[in-house]
What does this fold into?
Amino acid sequence: MSNHPSLTQALASLLLEACKNPRCPGFSHYLFEAVAGLVRHCGNDPASGGLPAYEAVLFPAFDAVLSGDVQEFHPYVFQVLAQLIELSSPPLSQVRQGFRV
It folds into this structure.
């Protein structure tokens, strides 16, 4: 059994907490490194639900960063979004439709 979904949920929860007080740049950096590493190595794993499962968990946290204007995290969010786009194949999932401009 895969622990990827529960790990992703835990990281997303930590990200939401870090948004409230982004004062520790080292912690924030490694938090996003963990998210990016998980997506890179497990994002296309069918046992974990694939990229749509990761997107469903991570996008609400990313939305909180972007809509809450947590500028310290913007570069990290855009890097992980770019990584998700690189790993995915068209068409865009329904979750990604909400991020269209």
In short: The mean pLDDT is 84. The helical segments are 4-20, 25-42, 50-67, 74-87, 94-97.
